[in-house]
Amino acid sequence: MTDNFTDLTPAPRRKMLLGGQIINHGSSEGAWRWPGNKPDLYYDLDAMAQIAQIAERGQFQLIFIADHPAMREDLTHRPPMATIDPIVVASHLIGKTKRIGIVLTQSTTFNFPYTVARQIKALDVLSHGRIGWNAVTTSDQSIASNYGARLDDRETRYARAHEFIQLVQALWDSWGEDALKLDVERGVYADVSAIQPINLGGNYVASRGPLPIPPTPQGHPLIFQAGGGAEGLQLAGMYASGVYSMVTDIPSGRAHRQALDHAALAAGRDPSAVKLFMGIFTTVAHSEEAALARREALLQLSSVPLAAKLHHLSILVGVRLRMETIREPLSADRLAALVPHPHYPHAERAARLLRKGKSPYEVVLRDVTGFHTTVIGSPTQVADQLQELFEAGAADGFFISPDVISDGLPAFVDHVVPVLQARGLLNEGDEGSTLRQHFDAASGMTTPVAFEGREQGRAGY
Predict the structure, then answer these.
(1) CA-CA distance, 221 to 213, in Å (whole number)?
(2) pTM, whole model, 2 decimals?
């Protein structure tokens, strides 16, 4: 008998992922000077742990730890934005948290695959499966100089990255899933036949293996990617479970999502396995007016002159803006002359705000000249903006950077997260205890195509 009935069970609703880029003072330049913030946060591990615990209480899936192993800021007026050291910080945080994932950055350009594989896998074992690796190529000569080297060209750096990632994956997989026995009665610690060298060597990196670290509850750590261009897309499509994108709005988010889909399909993967994250700066207050007042107070603490921000805004919209009229809406003829810069993020948004009658000063307060998209307002308004971006397909999740960590992160966790949960947009913390479960990610390893046709097991390996 043929079953003619249609299954009317609704498909599970897609859930928004939340990450916190929070191991710093905040996204505002003067955040370290804000009352209640810790000016010594850069080297206060206990304060970092308290921040991580707040994010965990807010059902964040992960903490993202960026890295920049060189001095890039003028430390006269502001502290470093990156963490003091990702490995050291992550080692501390895993002992102070229970569920939240921790994704840390390690370069494929100035490291050895065995070192990275060992450190990341050790953290994954000790955290019971909560670690991800943000695999990046280094493009800053100041970093290269710290390693006494010159930067290779982009093609070479990414060719090395492919070999590097696959070696790390192979090392992670060199200890078989059932190799660990811990049989006290028979005196058998492990089945050594399931722990094998990898003997892989390419044009840039090589390793014998095996890695003497057993599997974790999630099998092996997740891989993240944060580079741009065609090379970055290919890397993400082949290996990544999460991508830290520089998208700033719905059109750019959809475009990146479509490009990721093509890259994943070309690598033989399900595109839904690659989650796209948008960086978001937040300012949360009881109303939009209060949020703008908070932005104004933060602006007074910034070491970046208002004139410099206005000049940047002028470049974004193609019209010279003057300090003497910064608080006045633009005239009709000046509005007609606006030409958003085609290669700068936020240019369209800046022009749109000016066309709505906002003064240049009000646009600056909304941080349109900042690196990421800034959302401000009441908890409902902030939730509305995130929901719009999410449901429009601009991102699968967001890396949240509050304006000031000390009170901005609790404001987001205590007031925005409940709104998103009430709308059914967030998980309730019941998706599991590993980072892979948070992502619902498959655990299969990537085929080492970078070594196809090349000598494997080189002399000495």
Answers:
(1) 13
(2) 0.90
